[in-house]
Amino acid sequence: MADDEARPAPDAPAGPPVCPRHPDRPSYVRCQRCGRPACPECQRQAAVGIQCVDCVREAAKQAPRVTTTLGGNARTERPVVTFTIIGLCVVSFLLQLVPGLVWTERWLFSPMAGAVEPWRFLTVAFLHSTGMLLHIAFNMYALYITGQFLEPLLGRARFAALCVLAAVGGSVGFLLFAGLPGPLGVSWTQGTVGASGMVFGLFGAMLPVLRRTGRSAGQIVVLLVINGVLGFVVPHIAWQAHLGGLVTGLALGAAFAFAPRRSQRVIGVVAPAAVLLVVVLAAVAKYEIALRPILVPGQV
Questions:
Q1: Candidate CATH numbers 3.30.390.10, 1.20.1540.10, 3.60.15.10, 3.40.50.150; the one for domain 80-292
Q2: To bridge 200 with a disulfide, which of 84, 211, 216, 246 should be the other Cys (CB 3.0-4.6 Å)?
Q3: What protein family does this chain belong to (predicted)?
Q4: Helix/strand/coil for 77
Q5: Is 112 exposed, middle or buried (0-12, 13-18, 19+ CB in 10 A)?
Q6: Nearest-CA neighbor of 59 among 30, 29, 21, 33?
Q7: CA–CA separation, 125 and 120 (whole Å)
Q8: Residue 119 gets which letter from DSSP?
Q9: Confidence (pTM)
């Protein structure tokens, strides 16, 4: 009988409805989709009425993927890859200024250093001249402008692949001129720093992308011509890296831009792999031809 006395009467008033996610909060507003109560923190404005956060999340999963002309995610809000690269460059630049850390010497690229530490082909893109703030300022501004345009169009994965391969392609371009006679050649021990190879790769990618989207590429062409001339007029500019990045970005951008709609995902994987294979083979061939007689005694 004690149990019967403890039970509430059948006509006893029920308690107020509570939010399933926050049981301590009475919630008199119900989700238009599932009918459950939703507290103010869990309410989301819908086209009609209010929906709870769970229903909004489920609807987002079931919604069809909306893509751009080139296969990027049309819902991408912020160029995360662009901001990440800029942040890494800024942090790396500050580390370059730390006395005794030898951060620059540890990660810069030279043709000879790249032969024994191949990661320098990429890490060089996150270093800049500490004696000229304009160097990092121009590169970061150019990366910001081009990234704002290209990253949403291509999608984060393909844009990241473009940036990485353009940086590596710039270093390979510098390597290919190592040891050549005359003013075009560079020393095997000559070091270089900067994200310019990556930036010029993005410039190169913009040419086919602008053509594919029906926009004018006149400003990019003028910018490339001006920088091309400056590379031969202003000393200490690694125009060889600019050229390598430009060619790499142009090739990859063309593959992304003119891929058939039904093949965009496949080409988004195949094209970067093919470009990576080409730049790796170019570097290996250069080292094999130029350094084998030195590293292997008796070879001619």
A1: 1.20.1540.10
A2: 246
A3: Belongs to the peptidase S54 family.
A4: coil
A5: middle
A6: 33
A7: 9
A8: T
A9: 0.76
Q: So where are the chain's domains?
A: 17-54, 80-292
Beta-carbon contacts of residue 7 (< 8 Å; ≥ 6 apart): none
Q: Which two tokens stand for residue 236?
A: 């200490």
Which DSSP category does 71 fall into?
Answer: S
- State the sign of the Cα–Cα–Cα–Cα dihedral 110, 115, 120, 121: positive
**Residues 154, 155, 160: CA angle, nearest 5 degrees:** 90
How far is Cα 147 from Cα 159, in angstroms, rounded to an integer? 8
Q: pLDDT tens-digit profile of 250-274?
A: 999 999 999 998 888 999 999 999 9
CA 155 to CA 87: how far, in whole Å?
19
pLDDT in tens, 140-185: 999 999 999 999 999 999 999 999 999 999 999 999 999 898 888 8
**For residue 97, what are its two tokens?**
């200024």
Contact 74, 156 (CB under 8 A): no
